[in-house]
Amino acid sequence: MEESMGLPDGHRRSVVSAATRDATGSVRLGLRRNWVQFTLLVIVNVCVGGLVGLERTTVPLIGSHVFGLTSDLTVFSFIIAFGVTKALTNLAAGALTARFRRKQLLVTGWLIGIPVPFALAWAPSWGWIVAANVLLGLNQGLTWSMTVNMKIDLVGPARRGLATGLNEAAGYTAVGATALLTGYLATSHGLRPAPELIGVVFVVAGLALSLVVRDTAAHVALELAQHTEPLPSDADTGLKAIFARTSWRNRSLRGASQAGLVNNLNDGLTWGVFPLLFTDHGLGLAAVGLIKGLYPILWGLGQIPSGHLSDRVGRRPLVVYGMLVQAGGFVLALALLGRPLLAGVLSAVLLGLGTAMVYPALIASVSDHAHPAWRANALGTYRFWRDIGYAAGALLAGLLADTLGLNATVVAAAALTAASGLLAARWIDGQRPAR
Question: What Cα–Cα distance (Å) separates residue 353 from each residue in 132, 200, 263, 350?
C-alpha cells in the first residue's frame, strides 16, 4: 500500500482497489469528511509542541545558572543534540513508512518521549540534559512527522496548505504557550523541577490520543488511485534517490530545503541567544518567557491564514516575504536593545509572523512537487534539512557568541535569513503543479 505500508505489489493493488470502491463511503479525502480524525491529530500535535516548548525559556538558563556553564557553545550543545537527532529521525521516518504504519511510528515516538520531562527536571549533570534532548529529538522527529503526513493524507491535494497550516499552528502555539508558562513557573518556583514536570501531562495525553487515532494508509491508497500523474514504472522511489531529488536535483525542492534549513537555523539561534541576550540587558525570567512565548504563539496561530492563503496565491510569495520579515525582526532586536522589553516583543512579533508565512508554504510546496508514491521520503528529506538548521544555528550561535559576542550573532542571523529569502525567490516555482 504505497510507501506507508511496504506491501507486495499484488496486495497493494487490492488495497488501492478497495479504497477506490469505498470512495463514497468511509474512505474519502477532504477536511470536512475526515474532521474527527483530523481534529484528534491536531490535539496530538498540541502535545507534541508542548513537550518541546518546555525548553524554550528555562534550559539555556539552567545551563548557565544551575550547572555554571561559561561557554555559550557548551550551553547550546543541548540544541545541537536535539537538532541533529530530530533531523536524522525526520529522514528515517520517511523510509520507515515503507515498513510500518504511520500510527505505529506515532505511538513509538511517544513511548520514546516518556523520560524527557523527568530528565529535564532532575538531571544531575549537563550531560543528562543533552541525553534528554537526544530522546526529545527522536520523539519530535517521529511524532511531528507522522501528524503532518497523516493530515496531508486525510485532506488530499486541494487543501494541503490549510492542513499543514493547522498542523503547524497547533504545534507551535503549544510551544509558545508552554514557553510562556514555564517562564512564569520559573519565576515563582525556580528553574527546576516545576516548569519541566508539566511535560508529563503532554506525554500522557499525546500517547493516549495516538492510541485512539486511526491510521491513514487507505487514504494514501485512494489518492494514489485518483492521481492524474502516473508514476513511471522505472521510477526510483528509494530514500537515496528522493534525498538527491529533494536536496538539489529538483530546483523547487532545493529552494524549499535551503529555506527550511535557514528558517530553523535562526530559530535555533534565538532559542539559545535570546534568553541570554535579554537577561544580560536586565530582563527577568517572566519577561524572557513572554518574548520566548510570543514568538512561537504568533508563529503557530499565523499559519492557519497563511496556509490557506498559500493555496490561493501560491507558495513562493509567502516564503520569500516571510524570510525577509524574519530578517527585519533580528534587525529590530538590536536597533531597540536600549529598551530591551520593547526590542524583544517587537522582534518576537516579526519573527513569529514571518515564520508563520514560511512554514506551511514550504511543507505544501514540497508536497506539491512530490508524487504520492514518494511524498513521505520527500517530506522526510525536507524536514531533515529544515531541522538540521537547529543544530547549525546553535553551533553558529555558540561559535560567534564566544568569539564576537551575542550582538554579532544576531547580525549574522539577519543576513543569512535575508539571503535565503532571495534564493527562494530564484529557485521555488511560482506556480503550483496541476493536480
Answer: 30, 30, 12, 5
- Rounded mean pLDDT of 83-112? 92
Can you say whether the dihedral through the CA atoms of 316, 321, 322, 323 is positive or negative? positive
Helix axes 35-53, 160-189, angle to 10 degrees: 40
> The C-alpha cell of 223 is what?
489518492
Contacts 24+ apart (CB under 8 A), 196-201: 196/54, 196/58, 196/117, 196/120, 196/121, 197/117, 197/118, 197/121, 198/50, 198/54, 198/117, 199/50, 199/51, 199/54, 199/116, 199/117, 199/120, 200/117, 200/118, 201/50
C-alpha cell at 65: 545558572
- Dihedral sign, Cα of residue 376, residue 358, residue 151, residue 100: positive
Cα 213 to Cα 85: distance, rounded to the nearest angstrom: 26
Instruction: Please compute Rg for the chain using Cα positions.
Output: 21
Give me the count of residues in the chain: 435
* Alpha carbon of residue 113 to chain centroid: 16
User: How many C-beta atoms lie closer than 10 Å to residue 206's C-beta?
Assistant: 27
CA 188 from chain centre, in angstroms, equals 30
d(CA 411, CA 114): 38
**CA–CA distance, 268 with 389 (Å, rounded to integer):** 7
Section 34-62 average pLDDT: 93
Contacts of 124 (CB under 8 A, 6+ apart): none
**Residue 62: pLDDT over 90:** yes
**Phi, psi values for residue 99, rounded to 5°:** -115, -30
Average pLDDT, stretch 311-319? 92
Apex 149 CA angle, 182 and 379, nearest 5: 95
CA distance 23 to 369: 25
Domains of the chain: 13-226+237-427 (1.20.1250.20)
Share of the chain above pLDDT 90, in %: 64
Q: Is 319:310 a contact under the CB 8 Å cutoff?
A: no
Q: What is the pLDDT of residue 195?
A: 94
Q: Report which of 322, 179, 347, 177 is spatially closest to residue 262, judged by C-alpha positions.
A: 322
Give CA separation, 47 vs 12, 50, 259, 354, in Å: 33, 5, 26, 24
Say if CB 393 and CB 225 are below 8 A apart.
no
